[in-house]
Structure prediction request, 743 residues.
Amino acid sequence: MINITSTGPFLTFRHGVHPEEYKELSCHRPIERMPFVEEYTLPLSQHIGAPAKPVVKEKQRVRRGELIAEPSGFVSVGLHSPVDGTVTAIGLFAHPNGQMAPAIRIKADPFSAQRFIPQPPTPPEQIPVSEFIAAVQRAGLVGLGGAAFPAHVKFSIPEGRQIRYLMMNGCECEPFLTCDHRVMVEYADELIDGTGILQHFIKAEKIYIAIEANKPDAIAILREKAAASGMPIEVAPLKVKYPQGAEKMMITAILGEEVPSGKLPLDVGVLVSNVGTVVALSQYFRQGMPLIERVVTVTGPAVRRPANVMVPIGTPMRAVAEFCGGITDEAARILLGGPMMGVVQKSLDVPVVKGISGILALSDNEVRDITAYSCIRCGRCLEACPLFLNPARLGLLARKGLWEEMEENNLMDCFECGSCSFACPSGIPLVQSFRIGKAMIREKKAREKS
Amino acid sequence: MLNDAVIGVGILAGLGLLFATVIAIAYRRFRVYEDPRIDQVEEMLPHANCGACGLPGCRAFAEQVVGQAIQPSKCTVSSAEAIQRIAAYLGVDAGSEEKRVARLLCAGGRREAHNLADYKGTLSTCRGESAVAGGPKACSWGCLGLGDCATACTFGAIVMNEDGLPQVIPDKCTACGDCVKACPKGLFELMPVSQKLIVQCRSLLEGTEAEDRCSVACTACGRCVADAAAGLITIRDNLAVIDYRLNHLASTEACFRCPTQAIVWVEGQQFAKPTAPILPVGRVERYGEEYFQ
Prediction:
């Protein structure tokens, strides 16, 4: 075990990159509440796994927090209406991933007070694990860090496995984003409470709250609350480095051991959860509020008033941007998520979904036209890759279309953090070609199966 | 001295005999008989190793043909004469296999379907652009027009036309399916040439939603269904779907009824006639100059 210090040198993993942070744009802005807008679009697939199945019909009236789509399998979660209103359509609407995807469109009732009446379910202390898992699934909880992996799947620990360490991920290593930072500062009680709920079922030896050292206020507040909670919680300040918040990197930093290739944190006895997810867990079990809103950081040089906003799921991105003073004419690229892993948008007419942690508008100064030069074998990508892959070799293989060989070189371990592309002095689109490689391998496997 | 030489020669001769016996027995024991006709048939095949027949290469095809497990005509790359030659050589029925070609189920080129954004990256291939927000086109199903299929085609059967659409040359196309795998949007389909009525659209949107994104999109208006033989065309998921089991009933009528030219009658090559803007009466355009009669 490695000693955790609060003065540094802080714990970290090997490799990684140091992008500029830009967090000061929004890190001191308290979370604001987004006013309700006219129309909400809720894609049925906002999580990894099978899309949810609608349980409402067109023209049906729905209440805020009412279930509108149920999980269609184990790796699937429910979906709830973010407003009092009427279902106007169930059809294809633009999804942030660039495709048209099935979604439920709800028109908000202009005369409703939009008040959420707390109806807490049975306290988690009185229910068995199976009921807890089912409740989490029904509540529509997904990992709010970005991947939107259904939380209940993560929380279901197979028989005979014991989780030794529970880790709350508040690293937020992506530049610009500050939503987890604000959540930790403003929802510290809920965070500790949610951790307690999870600990009640997981019974871990020790709980870590991992925070990058650039959030001293969050570290101080959580230290205080953790000491008062009576649980074995330790707040672990980690070195400011990208991708510190990737769960495997975080585990390496705190425990000093690696998660083997192709394995899950579960295999080393660790359960990692984003801090926002745990806050949502607490809100569901104490107030009965399913996942109908989340904190989104609206930031970037091309946003007039950068802010952290509590946005109901399904709000159009355009409305959120307008709430923050709008996007200036300088905007050259709009991303959902951070600058390293965020998804580029071609239109503002997409809804905010559960996995979106930020809306980032970059101006011409940040977006330069890149020319891709040849690989000069400088090896910077090798020093950047947190998984110790060989991006240079993978990039050359991708250029030749040798997908099988890419797979042999452990392409499937890559989690597309973007460190290699960031480090490459030749501007080679490495991550993009790895995504293509992964898609080709997946398609080939699907063809072979059928 | 002489004795030594005799012994040496004797030992070597003995060993030689022993090994020869072993080899002779092994040859008898482990001999694999291979039909000499396989080599002959393989010689007559086009050596493309394209896999269009569904077998891994021409050699495997030759083995199957000689074993009479497959008919020579299954090789769609060979010319009719070559197939007849193989059939005559083996004394089997050539069989009749209808020629298939790859058809693009999208007609939204540069003129028809607009972009929502400019792609600023450096990986300008269909796969590369579709990895970023599904590509710049407004229609998320449509052809990106960057020619991954043309690069993948080993027969030179796909050329990109000036509208940014891949044009498949039927004579060169062997229906090997490489373009089907290359297209990130899955827009290619291998179709028998007798299937002439084709819906050149994959958009699942309806009405103006679809038409706003592409002028030749299927808007699911259902006019083609009304005029066609019963059951030939149906609207499924906002897209006209042709039941090719009733292909003999297909007629050009549906194409005339389609307001967006999404459903077309293809003789030979797709996009052979550019979908020219409809000119008002009296207005003539010739060599880029406009004048009135």
Summary: Residues 36-90 of chain B form a domain with the 3-methyladenine DNA Glycosylase II; Chain A, domain 3 fold (CATH 1.10.15.40).
